């Protein structure tokens, strides 16, 4: 994957522009790996107790945010794999609030969530490196919108950046 793989308008739902726009002129696989250490540094500076708190009533805890990042990585990675392999079936949306509510994240030791994030990122980058170059531009449908493989990969990286910004600002 190289800088020529930047997603074009129409390759993703307008909602995702806020994530994709954070990634211009960046080596995405390298960024995905560097986010492992950035996430780890942020969470390791936090106590287990504090990681179970939201920044305001009704807001996700820091652990739930991490669980949400992991879930989003997995859903987007699965979609990217399917579309890279030529899948034509449309994929439904996923309800992030339902996923978080059912994650049990606050009961999982923080060290386990961090390991889960790290392992899923290594698997993602390994997949990216093994994809044929022409697969990045393949299009599938998710949540009622056309989306390319490369857009999904950029969304993953930008989504994590987005949540790290919120964590650092509000938690």
TrEMBL record:
This chain belongs to which protein, by name? DinB family protein
Q: Where is the DinB-like domain?
A: 37-166
For this protein, the parts annotated as crossing the membrane are: none
Against InterPro entries, the record matches this protein to:
DinB-like, DinB/YfiT-like
Q: Gene3D superfamilies this protein is in?
A: dinb family like domain (1.20.120.450)
């Amino acid at each position: 994957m190289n800088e020529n793989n930047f997603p074009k308008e129409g390759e993703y739902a307008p909602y995702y522009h806020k994530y994709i726009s954070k990634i211009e002129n960046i080596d995405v696989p390298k960024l995905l790996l560097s986010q492992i250490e950035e996430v780890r540094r942020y969470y390791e500076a936090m106590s287990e107790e504090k990681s179970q708190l939201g920044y305001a009533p009704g807001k996700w805890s820091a652990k739930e945010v991490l669980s949400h990042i992991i879930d989003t990585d997995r859903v987007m990675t699965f979609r990217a794999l399917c579309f890279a392999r030529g899948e034509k079936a449309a994929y439904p949306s996923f309800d992030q609030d339902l996923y978080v509510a059912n994650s049990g994240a606050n009961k999982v030791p923080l060290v386990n969530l961090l390991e889960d994030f790290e392992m899923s990122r290594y698997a993602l980058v390994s997949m990216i490196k093994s994809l044929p170059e022409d697969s990045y531009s393949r299009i599938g449908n998710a949540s009622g919108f056309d989306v390319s493989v490369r857009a999904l990969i950029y969304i993953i990286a930008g989504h994590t950046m987005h949540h790290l910004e919120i964590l650092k600002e509000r938690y």
